[in-house]
Amino acid sequence: EPEVTQTPSHQVTQMGQEVILRCVPISNHLYFYWYRQILGQKVEFLVSFYNNEISEKSEIFDDQFSVERPDGSNFTLKIRSTKLEDSAMYFCASSAQGGGANVLTFGAGSRLTVL
Amino acid sequence: AQTVTQSQPEMSVQEAETVTLSCTYDTSESDYYLFWYKQPPSRQMILVIRQEAYKQQNATENRFSVNFQKAAKSFSLKISDSQLGDAAMYFCAYRSAYGAAGNKLTFGGGTRVLVKP
Q1: Which residue blocks in chain A are alpha helix, DSSP H?
Q2: Which of A32, A60, A84, B115 is the most exposed place for a label (fewest CB within 10 A)?
Q3: Interchain proximity A35–B46, CB inside 8 Å
């Protein structure tokens, strides 16, 4: 069964450092997403991406966050200058099409710990 | 903005018994989709079942079924004949049917299901 692959599984970083989380979506999927889950809290939407641009983003996704699809297979989330409150599990997802009916396939997540 | 609420932080069920997880949501939209995702200890969220709001018939998927009450904005998940492999965190989620808002899932806080042998 096709999978969404995320790396690293766990990253520890110092406050103020830049972090890049990587995702390899399912190969024929066209829509890509990032979600995050702070420990003990709800899974929250960050951003959706289609046709090489952001299609929607939440208020959490401020200027310190960016996404790109650098090579046609990877989908990355960059946090420019990490803060303590960025510590969370980050989930990548992809879907074949956009819109409410389409099912997202999630990766296993990348745990980010900011010290 | 839509909200999704799961009022049960944890549920325990005996193997082979049935457990029902509750989910309520708040929306002003008439067309939307509802999902239950399972997150086992391996962390990867897996779709369990999906319901289209325009369909009156409740969705079923093997041992998993939902009770969708649109007027009450309720979407409960029933797991029948519970198995040890059902132990996981279960998330209820909402997705709009309209435009760009359909790109995001709004999740509830999750219910942890424990299965006792």
Answers
A1: none
A2: A84
A3: no
